[in-house]
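Researcher: Going back to the complex we discussed earlier. I've cleaned up the inputs and rechecked each line, so this should be the final set. Can you rerun the prediction on the complete assembly and write out the structure?
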Amino acid sequence: MLKIMIIGATSVIAQETARFFATEGAEFFLVGIPADKLVVIKDDLVARGAKRAEVYEADLTDFDKHPQIIESAVQAMGSIDAVLIAHGTLGNQKAAEASVEVALKEINLNLLSNISLLTLLGNYFEKQRRGCIAVISSVAGDRGRGSNYVYGTAKAGTTTFMQGLRNRLAKSGVAVVTIKPGLVDTPMTADIKKNFLFSDPATVGKAIYLGMKKGKDTVYAPWFWRYIMAIIIHIPEFIFKKMSL
Amino acid sequence: MTTPLNRLKQYKSWGRYPTVEHKAIHQIHWRSDLPDVNKFEETVLPYGYGRSYGDSCLNEGGILLDTSYMQQFIAFDAEQGLVRCEAGVSLEQVLEVIVPCGWFLPVTPGTKFVSIGGAIANDVHGKNHHRAGTFGCHVTQFELVRSDGTYICSPTENAELFRATIGGLGLTGIITWAEFKLKRIPSPLIDQEKIRFANLDEFFAISAEMDQRFEYLMSWSDCLSGGDSMGRGIFMAGNFYDPPLGAEPSAKKLKPFVPFDLPSIALNTLSVKAFNAVLYRIPLGKRVRSIVHYEPFYYPLDAINNWYRLYGKRGFLQYQLVVPLEGDNEPIREVYRRIAQSGEGSFLVVLKAFGDIASPGMLSFPMPGVTLALDFAFNGEKTLKLLDELDTIVREARGRVYPAKDARMSPENFRAYYPQWEAFAHYIDPKFSSSFWRRVTESANGQ
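Model: Rerun complete. Updated structure for the full complex:
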């Protein structure tokens, strides 16, 4: 059965994805904060059919601890077949515009922590010569917009890093899956007024599950965001800059 | 995992009548992160998937606590058949987990898109009431968070709160998680039998016999034909199928949906008559046997997403009554006569005999007798007047009307149906209220 490491396991999208793997009897190594919520998720996955689940509390902005997280996962499960990196914050764009500190903090969690983890995981999987690395990026990384470009920058950086990693690891038979959810109804977007573009986290979870199983390169979740973004990235900049999106 | 959580949720009830404005909606994502309800000025009410038909899931001017995000399982004992999960887990999600392990819900209503919290708060019943009672009969314990603290409730611990919360319409606090017993099944298939009956006399005659042979039993009845064929219909009976070794028939899973509100004209007396005539095509007295998957057997309407739209924007009223089985069952006959006279067609009429298994719930609806569930397109005063007339018949027969489906019964009738309401009211959390509760207790509290 699959041995899956989930980093940022309290993310609702990660949970929904994990539930699909759980019904197949997968084993989990759940990383994130806080420990009590990780235990809630562990119990849920086991009840839904997971063979087992281990929890590991870790602050992901503490980069020095990253090697230890991965070593612990390998030690606990023997090996890692797939990893899903799902942690992140939407942040407050206005606050980030007003403060360099806030802006860099966003970049630190949403981009630099990914680079740190992916560097270590990339080497692990390259040596293993099989497996799947999936990261939740965002459609927000496809084009910078006034309303959330700090977040978008972190996601664009993640997407580009993943692209390069995919190119490198293709030779080793490792799948590198970039997931780009659109608007999803989760605690992250609790303060945003919902419209018809919002999706259910379970729908997004299923798209990620299938994308990881098939080892796809890029997964838009749900699928229709591929076409929305295709239009958005092709709007000429002289028009785009005057739009408020 | 696939429950269609309508993310454009409008926080309405399933009948789309009445519609009210709420002050605020609070989503609850973790059972450890409940809001302190004491900090709200307004009253609160838990809201799951909005499958209650009337106003029992609404709290006009107040706050709704959306529990549908709380979807964690806590434990599943596949040996003993015991599930513990959060209140927002839907019956569909429970089925996805338990059916592959050879278990089924002990009791299920006609839709699987309800939450566990809602199943308890409305003490739902199903086709096996005569054998298994209500959902509340199978609940072993739950956690109730009230404005004054957190309580574990079971038949032995905080037993009064346990009894008040089962069928308590969400008024006694928030159920965060619950534990309940499951039923062993040999397969997910149903050995089904359909039998046509010519009128109510035949219904009562066959019903007594069928109750003995079948665990699951309900019938579809035509409320528009009068005279000798008054109440004619079809029994749908079933037991779980124990298949001999070999291939199992697979269920077809088509999912039509209603993409927009139909014009109000779509459901009228003529179309209801046509529908009932088609339904009634099975030859009289003939027993038609088939093996079917549990989904079409239990949840025929779940195959149509948003079926409330069949009734158009005006919405519809559900009405479910129960009256004791007595003599020649004149009250039920009178109900059929009134409906036929009124010309208000009811599309789906479900007729069933309840058994005598008592629920622990204080304010539970089911009681020994015969129950009839109807739905009426909302045609304003005309519809309300008919239902008031039916209320009187039920009241005189010492029966009850189901609060989970009600949007209009009078305070006087409610108190006559549920004389225990004052004893129940003692357990209501002072920070909790609903549009339904204020409506049916209005003059009694002098508000």
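Model: Worth noting: Residues 77 and 83 of chain B are 6 Å apart (CA to CA).
Researcher: Good, that matches what I expected from the previous run.
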